Amino acid sequence: MQMVTAAEMAAIDTATAEQAGVPFAELMEHAGAAVARFAQRQFRRARRVVVLCGTGNNGGDGFVAARHLARTGLSVDVIVLGDPAKAQGAAAEAYKALQTSRALPFAVGSVEQVRGLRTKLEDADLLIDAVLGTGFKPPLRELPAALRDLLREVRTPVLSVDLPSGWDADLREQSSPDAFRSDAVITFTAPKPAHLFGHLTTGHFGPVVVAPIGTPESLVRSEERLTWTGASTKLLETPRPMDSNKGMYGHVLVVGGAAGKPGAPSMSSLAALRTGAGLVTAAVARSIQQTVALTTPELMTAALDEAEGGALALSNVSPERLETLLKKISVLAVGPGLGTEGETPAMVQRLVAETTLPLVLDADGLNAFKGKAELLDGSKRTLVLTPHPGEMATLLGVSTKQVQADRLNLARKFATEHQLHLVLKGWRTLVAHPDGRVAVNTTGNPGMAKGGSGDILTGIVAAMLAQFPHEVAGAVEAAVYLHGLAADLAVQRRDERTLLATDTIAHLSDALRYRVQDEDGATWICGVRRRGGRWSAEGRAELD
Ligand SMILES: NC(=O)C1=CN([C@@H]2O[C@H](COP(=O)(O)OP(=O)(O)OC[C@H]3O[C@@H](n4cnc5c(N)ncnc54)[C@H](O)[C@@H]3O)[C@@H](O)[C@H]2O)[C@H](O)CC1
Ligand SMILES: [K+]
């Protein structure tokens, strides 16, 4: 699923008419019908619906949706912001079709009239925001701004058509000062930048769904080749053969755990086992080997030599030691609990240089390359780095602030220059690939801001590589998606403050079985569907 800009979307609409023979009015009809279906499914108990429409095509979608909803017997009011005579083309047609339905529109033309809508909006069960879509150009004018302010004072749930009105579709920021409040968003054909980078809804888990409206996938083209991690979870739908054996799913070796740091390698290892790796071994300092072994009976362990002070010793990478350690290993995960003391960085550099095994480098595994980023070369092996912004800054020799200011470009540049897969963590984790493609991740929540989270991601990534060695890009994307999704599922049963990194492991089963596409064919790029296909939000079982 590619992300497209607002201008690309308009070109795709034209191509859909010219090359696929689907006229614009038909796209609008499908869009409006999809909005109506989504509204009914997600806001099941809504009886009184108010559809707020602009006079552009976003409003046109609203007119169509209102017509469909009225036909099902709901009480539907249509409020047009501005002069309906301004509507043109398909939107004008949709407005005309409304005249024969039970949803009669009325227009508001002044700020006072907008303010007079308060009771109507408060009394409704659902508001559908079809005021502005991709045609919005900031800043927001007076009339929609008054409506935006009023919506902030009213508690009725808001379903946004295409985008929360006033949100620039091409904006790549987490928030937008102009925008309307939103509880759920339904967009069409492909996500725009705002859908992937923005936090569009009030709750953490308000859905953002992409509904197909008749444009063939082959016409969805984008210059930038930016995608979404959830699309790669298709990999997980591959059924395992009945006569499976553990050798088919790889053997992950987690290298980490200096003296006194048994937690991190234990968590990575358990996460790898729970994600489906056939075998997992944790190679850790001799003094903590027993502790690590006792965390999980299915886990195998190997002892690493310790130098004075407890740091891991260079002797661990002697030819003989490597031969024993790496026998039958299919993926290496280096970093959890490793430390940066003494000989450890040199040991890591040697380990990386002397094998060509697929490798995931995290935490102190990355810090071992401080000032030596040129040694990180994925041109002849599978190499995945999972830095948080601080670690990325260390690698690049810049400040964390500089990394945060230009995440997308930095990630893409580093991945292509070093021919590796880079997982740059944070709000909307980015997965950049050697060929310049980047996938944006939309799962995860603030509960993950706690020690251990990264260790678990490392284990999930390693296990995915072990199982899908020939689909590396997809395996890494799916891993990042799963990790956040498992945490999203976990946090719905707990509070985000009490969430422990290991709680995400307990929700990996649900995350692995989750399907991003709903029964209607819409793809859920944000939000988690539960119970009867609807979503649940934190603190509230359901929004309807
Ligand atoms: N393939 C698809 O995704 C389809 C989407 N559809 C819908 O069409 C809209 C885009 O329609 P468009 O007419 O281009 O723009 P809008 O309706 O979003 O807005 C135009 C409207 O807004 C006024 N306006 C612009 N800026 C401001 C501002 N700052 N303040 C106030 N008003 C403003 C402008 O004057 C126009 O009147 C897309 O979002 C989808 O909802 C199609 O229906 C089917 C294909
Ligand atoms: K809208």
From TrEMBL:
Entry's family note: In the N-terminal section; belongs to the NnrE/AIBP family. Belongs to the NnrE/AIBP family.
Species assigned in the record: Terriglobus aquaticus
Gene: nnrD
Cofactor binding note: Binds 1 potassium ion per subunit.
Reaction equations catalysed: (6R)-NADPHX = (6S)-NADPHX; (6S)-NADHX + ADP = AMP + phosphate + NADH + H(+); (6S)-NADPHX + ADP = AMP + phosphate + NADPH + H(+); (6R)-NADHX = (6S)-NADHX
Residues noted as binding AMP in the record, renumbered to the chain: K425, G426, W427, R428, T429, G454
Gene3D superfamilies: 3.40.1190.20, YjeF N-terminal domain (3.40.50.10260)
Origin superkingdom: Bacteria
One Pfam short name: YjeF_N
Cofactor names: Mg(2+); K(+)
Record text on subunit structure and interactions: Homotetramer.
UniProt domain YjeF C-terminal: residue ranges: 229-515
The organism's taxonomic lineage, starting at the top: Bacteria, Pseudomonadati, Acidobacteriota, Terriglobia, Terriglobales
EC number(s) on file: 4.2.1.136, 5.1.99.6
Span of domain YjeF N-terminal: 9-221
Protein name: Bifunctional NAD(P)H-hydrate repair enzyme
Keywords: ATP-binding, Isomerase, Lyase, Metal-binding, Multifunctional enzyme, NAD, NADP, Nucleotide-binding, Potassium
Entries under InterPro entries matching the protein: CARKD, Nnr, Ribokinase-like, YjeF_N_dom, YjeF_N_dom_sf
Binding site residues for (6S)-NADPHX: 57-61, 133-139, 162, 264, 337, 388, 455
